[in-house]
Each structure stands twice: as C-alpha cells, then as structure tokens.
Specification:
single chain; alpha/beta; four-stranded parallel β-sheet; four-stranded mixed β-sheet; 10 strands; 46% helix; 13% strand; DUF1722 domain-containing protein; UCP037004
Length: 337
C-alpha cells in the first residue's frame, strides 16, 4: 500500500489529481494480521479497503513486538489507575517491564516515520486510548485507563492526531480525524517547502473557512499571530512563529464542527456571490442551507452547489479554500452530517 492515490474528477473536485498517500500508524490487528492474544485479528475493512486508498499504514502490535508470543494469555491493567501494572489475566505474571523496556525504542523508530496520525485498537490494555479497564488492588474495576503504548505515544507525539478504530464508526468523529490528518499533511508540506512568512500567510488564507468551521476564537488568535509575524521572527525566530501557529491550528481542529458553525461558514461563502446569483439561485441556496440546518440533507448537498458556482463564476479566493475540498470526495465524509 504505497504510492499515490488516483482521485477522479467529481462535482466537488477541482481537477483530476494525484494525492501522495499520508503515512499513519495503526494497530496491526486492525489491518487483518493475526497477532491477537487468541491468535486472531480485529480486521477493520474501512481501514484496509477504503482509507487505505489514501494512506500508508505503519503497523504496530505492542504485545507481540515487546516479546509476547502468539497465542498468549491475555493481559490487563492492574493496580493504581495513574500508574498501573500490566499483568496476565489468570497467572498474574507481571509484563510491565517487558512493555516499558520496549516502548522507548519503538517511539524512536516512529519518530523517523513522520506520522500524520495513529489509529489504535479499542479496549486494549496496550493500545486502547479511552476507558480501559483497570483492575484495582481494592477489587474495584474502573474504566479510566489508557493502554501502555497508547499513553506513551500520545505523550511523545502530542500534536499527532489519534483515534480508536471503534470510534471511527461515528461519522462525525471519522470526518474530524481524517480532516485532521489531511490538514496536518498540508501543514507539514508548507513547513518543508515554504517555511517563511509569505507561506504562512498563504496557508492561513487558504484555510480560513476550514478553521472557522471549527473555532472562530482560535481563528482570531491565529490571525493576530500571523499579523505579528515579522515582529515574532525578529525577536524569537521563524521556528517560534511556526510552532505557535501549529499548536493553535491543531487545537482548533480538535474542536468538532457543528451544523451551526457550518451554517455560519456557508453564509459567509454566499456573500461572495451577491453580484452573481439571481434571486432564484440565491433562494435555492438558502433553501438548501435551511434543509441542512434542519437535518434533512447532509453538508455535501449545499457544498456541491457552492462548488458548482465557484467554478461557474470563477471565484479565485474560494477556489483555494480547503474547506470546500478538505479530503478526497471518494471518502464520502460529508454525506452523513
């Protein structure tokens, strides 16, 4: 699964283009490999048959890679929820040292991969992100733990988007995660190719509507930061400016879009056509906005018409807005919300 993804021309695509695949990490079992404690897998076909068209996976199985066999006795988190041990379920053999000795080397190897995201196996004592069971020494079971490797990964790569495979079944969570990995890829491309104030201004301009659909307060903070770009570069250097912007960008994208936020963006877009659209065309657009607001149609419906008018009336500023095409149309991420 390497190379480039072929993207076909659609109503919302600008042209037929090749998109370089994005590199993300994934729990090995999700990719269909039989590495589970029972010798089985947790194959997620959305990851291998759909998302894989646009991403290359770096598989990681903490339990096998740290030295545990296949099959093996299952493990669980035991003890203090803040600092649990990793023990086998029946024989209570402590595997904590085995795991913690392996993790630093793995993180160092992943550092070189420049991952734009990671998808973890849910409910796993090594890889689960949320609500992992911790069996307390007091006999109580608390669903407040994080898998050993997942916790270390998030601490070491705090700006890399992460999600659990099970949660990706939620259309909104799925779109939010995938939008983040594509946004991070675009950001890193800028850092690699045009790490200067001019490049930052262009990036901020092109992503205005996308950021606004997540957080107006963050967009305003980012705008002030860019406006002070020359001053910050003079005092702290370009690296400091880009670091501060990246932190705000990822914080903004962490906040989910809502129908209300999207309506505000759509109305902003409509303002660009006030001299182009006839009264009937404007009313048709407003009717679609209202249908979207009430939940009768997904976001892709008004956006399809908007993209049509962007091309018809040649709106150069809107053509460059990533909000209109933040991820491949083939993923159908805006067909449900």
């Amino acid at each position: 699964m390497t190379g480039k993804a072929q993207i076909t021309t659609t109503e919302t695509d600008k042209t037929s283009i090749d998109i370089p695949k994005i590199k993300i990490g994934a729990s090995t079992c999700l990719l269909g490999k039989k590495v589970g404690y029972d010798g089985n897998h947790s194959h997620d076909r959305y990851l291998t048959q759909t998302l894989s068209l646009f991403v290359d996976y770096v598989p990681v199985c903490p339990e096998v890679e740290c030295g545990m066999p296949i099959p093996r006795e299952s493990v669980r988190l035991v003890g203090d929820p803040a600092a649990p041990r990793l023990e086998t379920r029946n024989t209570h053999e402590d595997k904590t040292r085995m795991m913690t000795d392996w993790i630093p080397g793995k993180l160092a190897a992943l550092e070189k991969e420049n991952l734009c995201g990671f998808i973890f196996k849910s409910k796993s004592p090594s890889s689960g992100l949320y609500r992992i069971r911790v069996y307390g020494d007091d006999g109580k079971v608390r669903k407040i733990g994080t898998g050993f490797f997942a916790k270390a990964f998030c601490e070491n790569f705090p700006r890399v988007p992460v999600e659990e495979a099970g949660r990706l079944n939620d259309p909104q969570l799925r779109e939010n995660f995938i939008e983040k990995i594509f946004s991070l890829r675009r950001w890193r491309k800028l850092v690699e190719e045009q790490k200067n104030l001019g490049g930052l201004v262009a990036f901020h301009t092109q992503n205005k509507l996308l950021i606004l659909s997540h957080s107006q307060p963050h967009y305003r903070q980012m705008g002030k930061l860019v406006a002070k770009g020359k001053e910050i570069i003079a005092k702290e250097g370009g690296q400091a400016l880009f670091e501060q912007y990246e932190i705000l960008l990822l914080k903004a994208l962490d906040l989910k879009t809502t129908i209300k936020k999207n309506i505000n963006v759509l109305m902003h877009i409509l303002g660009f056509f006030k001299k182009n659209l006839s009264a009937d065309e404007k009313q048709e657009m407003l009717s679609l906005f209202d249908q979207y607001r009430q939940g009768y149609v997904p976001l892709v419906v008004p956006l399809t018409l908007i993209n049509h008018y962007v091309r018809k009336y040649d709106q150069p500023w809107l053509k460059d807005q990533t909000y209109l095409n933040p991820h491949p149309f083939e993923l159908k991420l805006r067909n449900y919300f």
